[in-house]
């Protein structure tokens, strides 16, 4: 028996012992069928790899960040592959293909900060980035700021993108918040945006702050000359104007000089120079829709309305940025082309739906024309626009409430008002505007809820406290009523309306009677002959028991001159006077003449309580 036979017998012997030990278990296959075991192992490894490759289990966003973004191994592999494609296309000079590849790569790995920076950086580096990528570029630049906690590098990249797409308003909004932390290049972008947006005071302030940083840049010096041409000291005006003309002969500065001249001429109402420069820009193929719109507004202001309307109606150029759309809509409204402005805005919202200002502008136009069904549709469209990320949800509920009120559907209006209260908070200025409008259309309690959180922004603004006083009064909140009225008075004790509101708050809450008398007297002196002020003074006198003066004052009043609200207060004063005199019959007669709908809830509650306490008989 040879050695091979011995090995075979040994194997058979081991197999026999294993069979005795494990029976007919499939486990034996892995030991004696090596190929089967190999493929089974490969299959097992494949299953494990797929379980790690396909499900989205890899978290990209940091702890505490919302929303949580998770990706799969496949997503990461595709993003890496598409990134390589984007780099190759860029190297070959195929810009559009490269941008599309970057966009697809980012779509597969949306929270990869380094990928976002690289892809957006490529778009920002292009002399003329594709117009059709504006929504992608702008939305993702703001997304990058959130992911990167708005560091200086990401802020500069976002400012560069916004500048490339002509969104100077957003440059101002973002850059102003970060002014103290901006790099030299970023501060230059903010400086030019200030000027382009007509914020010449901020431009001058920033220039003075970093003048040594700006003076070495020929383009920024030309901006400074443009500022001097109209907004600088009188001695610099001609110097600035000459500099703009001379710069046209410099090939590197010619287009900028013409663009700056457009802004200067518009501010100066110099239509002839504006028209001349506009023709030069047309020859260079550098005009924007906003340039033409500004020209039409200038022509309209100078009495050439019909000519401006004709040009506006026949112009065919498309807007390149949301700023172009805004200026065009404003121009059309000034020219009386309101319906055309609505149609134009609706069409452009499809392209620039990410721009919140355009939605606001469209809502204003629909409100002006009382297109309530269209306004309600717009409100729903705002909430369905993913790119706004809930930014205007509260505002959209206000629009819906406004539409429903004017369509005489009070239940639907109330439902929208309730949703507004539960919505994510809006920007302070927008929230304040909505609060005013909600009070105007009959929802003072909603206005009050919106105003209270704004105290941190407007604590030193007397008008804010005045508005909050009015909302608290109409929503029957006595505690906040006196607080708000007192704050407004402390900030501006010379304003008669604020003084009157403070006095009214003391009267309806029946607090500080002596001060109420002094305040109402102060208002009467500033408003001679005003019956409302005189009636408030009478109510204050009743609080301190000066009944003889009250009776004499009431008898002097010509009741035929009273408004319905003043009439209600007049009879309320008589009611209280008769109560103090215990003349129950006269008190009942006065009570019957009071229209409670013309009084605030606190007055009605006090009046009804006192009436019920009148002895029978």
- Average pLDDT over all residues: 88
Widest sheet: strand ordering: 1-2
Residue ranges: pLDDT <50 for 5 or more in a row? 1-9
What does the radius of gyration come to? 36 Å
Distance between the termini: 137 Å
**CATH class designation of the domain at 57-165:** Mainly Alpha
Strand content: under 5%
Oligomerization state: single chain
Produce a short descriptive summary.
The protein is mainly α. The chain has helices spanning 3-22, 27-32, 34-53, 73-91, 95-108, 113-125, 134-147, 152-164, 168-177, 184-196, 200-209, 211-214, 218-230, 237-247, 254-268, 271-283, 289-301, 305-314, 322-334, 338-349, 356-368, 372-384, 393-406, 410-422, 428-440, 444-451, 455-458, 462-474, 478-491, 496-509, 513-526, 531-543, 547-556, 564-580, 584-592, 601-612; strands at 58-59, 70-71. The chain has a two-stranded antiparallel sheet with strand order 1-2.
How would you characterize this protein structure?
With 617 residues, the chain is mostly helical. Among the domains are: 27-53; 57-165, Alpha Horseshoe (Serine Threonine Protein Phosphatase 5, Tetratricopeptide repeat); 512-617, Tetratricopeptide repeat domain (Serine Threonine Protein Phosphatase 5, Tetratricopeptide repeat), CATH 1.25.40. Helix content is 73%, strand content 1%. It is built from 36 helices and two strands. The chain has helices at 3-22, 27-32, 34-53, 73-91, 95-108, 113-125, 134-147, 152-164, 168-177, 184-196, 200-209, 211-214, 218-230, 237-247, 254-268, 271-283, 289-301, 305-314, 322-334, 338-349, 356-368, 372-384, 393-406, 410-422, 428-440, 444-451, 455-458, 462-474, 478-491, 496-509, 513-526, 531-543, 547-556, 564-580, 584-592, 601-612; strands at 58-59, 70-71. It has a two-stranded antiparallel ribbon. The longest helix is centred in the N-terminal third of the chain and has 20 residues, at 3-22. The radius of gyration is 36 Å and the shape is elongated. The chain starts with a helix and ends in a 5-residue tail after the last helix. 36% of the residues are buried.
């Amino acid at each position: 028996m040879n050695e091979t036979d011995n090995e075979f017998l040994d194997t058979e012997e081991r197999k026999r012992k294993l069979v005795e030990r494990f029976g007919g278990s499939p486990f034996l296959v892995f030991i004696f069928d090596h190929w089967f075991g190999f493929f089974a192992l490969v299959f097992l490894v494949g299953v494990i790899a797929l379980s790690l490759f396909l499900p989205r289990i890899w978290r990209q966003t940091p702890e505490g960040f919302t929303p949580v973004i998770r990706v799969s191994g496949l997503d990461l592999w595709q993003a890496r592959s598409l990134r390589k494609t984007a780099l190759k296309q860029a190297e070959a000079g195929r810009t559009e293909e490269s941008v599309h590849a970057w966009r697809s790569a980012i779509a597969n790995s949306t929270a990869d900060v380094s990928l976002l920076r690289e892809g957006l950086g490529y778009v920002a580096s292009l002399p003329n980035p594709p117009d059709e990528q504006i929504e992608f570029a702008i939305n993702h630049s703001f997304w990058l700021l959130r992911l990167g906690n708005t560091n200086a590098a990401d802020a500069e990249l976002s400012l560069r993108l916004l500048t490339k797409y002509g969104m100077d308003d957003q440059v101002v909004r973002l850059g102003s918040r970060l002014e103290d932390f901006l790099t030299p290049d970023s501060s230059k972008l903010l400086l030019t945006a200030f000027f382009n947006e007509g914020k010449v005071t901020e431009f001058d302030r920033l220039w003075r702050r970093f003048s040594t940083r700006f003076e070495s840049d020929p383009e920024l010096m030309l901006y400074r000359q443009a500022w001097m041409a109209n907004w600088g000291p009188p001695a610099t005006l001609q110097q600035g104007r000459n500099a703009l003309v001379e710069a046209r002969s410099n090939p590197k500065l010619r287009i900028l000089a013409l663009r700056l001249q457009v802004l200067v001429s518009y501010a100066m109402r110099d239509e002839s120079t504006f028209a001349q420069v506009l023709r030069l820009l047309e020859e260079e193929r550098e005009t924007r829709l906003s340039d033409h719109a500004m020209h039409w507004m200038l022509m309209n202001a100078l009495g050439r309305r019909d000519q401006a309307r004709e040009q506006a109606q026949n112009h065919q150029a498309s807007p390149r940025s949301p700023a172009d759309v805004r200026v065009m809509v404003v121009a059309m409204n000034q020219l009386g082309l309101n319906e055309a402005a609505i149609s134009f805005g609706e069409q452009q919202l499809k392209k620039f739906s990410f721009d919140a200002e355009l939605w606001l502008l469209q809502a204003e136009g629909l409100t002006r024309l009382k297109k309530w069904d269209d306004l309600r549709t717009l409100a729903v469209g705002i909430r369905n626009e993913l790119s706004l990320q809930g930014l205007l949800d509260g505002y959209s509920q206000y629009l819906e409430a406004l539409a429903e009120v004017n369509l005489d559907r009070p239940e639907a209006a109330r439902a929208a008002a309730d949703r507004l209260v539960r919505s994510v908070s809006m920007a302070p200025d927008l929230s304040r505007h909505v609060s005013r409008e909600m009070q105007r259309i009959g929802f003072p309690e909603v206005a009050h809820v919106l105003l209270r959180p704004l105290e941190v922004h407007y604590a030193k603004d007397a008008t804010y406290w005045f508005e909050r006083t009015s909302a608290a009064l109409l929503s029957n909140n006595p505690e906040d009523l006196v607080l708000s009225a007192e704050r407004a008075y402390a900030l501006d004790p010379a304003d008669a309306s604020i003084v009157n509101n403070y006095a009214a708050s003391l009267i309806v809450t029946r607090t500080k009677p002596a001060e109420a008398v002094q305040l109402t007297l102060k208002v009467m002196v500033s408003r001679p002959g005003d019956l409302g002020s005189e009636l408030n003074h009478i109510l204050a006198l009743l609080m301190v028991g000066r009944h003889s003066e009250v009776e004499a004052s009431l008898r002097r009043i010509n009741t035929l001159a009273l408004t319905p609200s003043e009439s209600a207060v007049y009879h309320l004063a008589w009611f209280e006077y008769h109560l103090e005199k215990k003349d129950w019959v006269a008190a009942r007669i006065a009570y019957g003449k009071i229209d409670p709908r013309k009084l605030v809830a606190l007055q009605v509650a006090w009046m009804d309580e006192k009436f019920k306490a009148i002895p029978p008989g």
